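FIELD: query
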Amino acid sequence: MSQTNSQPVMPVALLSWRSVKRNTLRGFAEVRIGKSLKVSDVAVHAGNGKRWASLPSRPQLDKDGVAMRDDQHRIKYAPVVQWTEKDAADRFSEAVIQAVEAAHPGDTQGD
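FIELD: result
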């Protein structure tokens, strides 16, 4: 079993995968962590020789309900849930990448 910072990889099962290739985005996974937590819309990215998975986020809206944008005109996102420890986030990311690659080889690779 692969490990990050001497901790075992988080137990993640891939429930579904939707391939979307746009910039660093490779697609969205629905996963189960352990036996009872299902997480939808986990974004999987690849770029600069790295791959990572991010918990769901939502667009930031202004007072009129319009999506806010940054200086490069990209929509700004806010986390819905967050890891409180970087080690847990890294183990989750690694486990999601492994699960997607096992079911859909090559889908998480960068361009």
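FIELD: remark
The mean pLDDT is 92.
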